[in-house]
Fold:
Amino acid sequence: MRSWPAPPVPSLVDLGQGKGKLPRLHDTRSGGLVEPHPTGKARLYVCGITPYDATHLGHAATYVAYDVLRRVWQDAGLDVAYTQNVTDIDDPLLERARERDEDWTELAGREIELFRDDMEALGVSPPDDFVGAVESMPRIVALIERLRERGALYAVDGDLYFDVHSDPSFGEVSGYDEQTMRALSAERGGDPDRPGKRDPLDGLVWRGARPGEPSWDSPFGSGRPGWHVECAAMALDSLGIGFDVQGGGNDLVFPHHELSASQAQVALGEHPFAQAYVHAGMVGYAGEKMSKSRGNLVLVSRLREDGHDPLAIRLSLLARHYRSDREWSDLDLSDAEARLARWRRAVTRSAAPQVRTLVATVRDALCDDLDTPRALAAIDVWAESALAGAEHAVVHVSGAAAPAEELEAPTVVRALTHTLLGTPLDHP
Structure:
């Protein structure tokens, strides 16, 4: 599947600022901070959109956050292999297409194109592998076959289910008790009360063909895959078992990430599926999580149509920590627009202040579980000093002497914000 053009990303190393450090990240499985140590390339898998109602600010906050992680890794000198999927066949997509009396493939295609446009506008670097479930059907079927060979599947009225008891580590990703798991399964697309299941938490891996629904041939009959096995297959095919970070919103912790991990681990007989599970918070509006059913979606495309600078939209999302659930307010965007305007004025000042510790401070903040609010606040302090007319000085990092070619502070601040925050300060 085609992604979108990659934005240019400058290198702080090329400006004589040295390499950054590896980030520490909050791991849902362990409940604490971990520091992944990638071997060779850093491998990142982030669950993508189901292509309808794209791109609301909840989507945008998630993908901006992992874009920052990717940039921090690159600033530390790592190559990054980043895979993001598109769930372009699933019940919610088919239901929306029926509501609109529209072909589901046309709906998906249009929404994916809108998502590409929004990501490009927000300065999000594209994944190396942007892959849809439909195009991945052979690899998904192959993974289901491996699960069947291992005796981890059973049939219920023509559908195939994964037996969670086949994975001794089932439950370790979320750490939830059974009651919580059952409640979340019912809330998030599962069917814990379906008669014939061995365990309420067993996950659907193959749905037998239904009248009026799309289906694909397979060794287990015509039908289509379940959601969790799709992501397991795509991640394994692109990144292999034991990749560095599984990402996505915190509403995916259970059942999606739990079951994806279990299915992959049982199929390959290896553990763990991912070294760390890093989850972004939800974005709410008018007191509830954003969703079409609640009528409270704030769409990136609509904000752009209203004339808002995409870089200000990005800054408004970075102003809150990626892991925090937050409430969106129109004031968030106006504050971000004012912040962006201040930064842009500051980097035009010939009497800009020193940034002896600014690069190090921003790097330290982002390496501390992607603390973007602290990074933005550090740049705010520099910008206020610049606008106050502080005496001009050349760049230093942590007190070290500047390169022989003595760069002006605004040059490095431009590169700093662009490299790590994805926000080029020059006017569009």
Observations:
- The first strand starts at residue 25 and ends at 27.
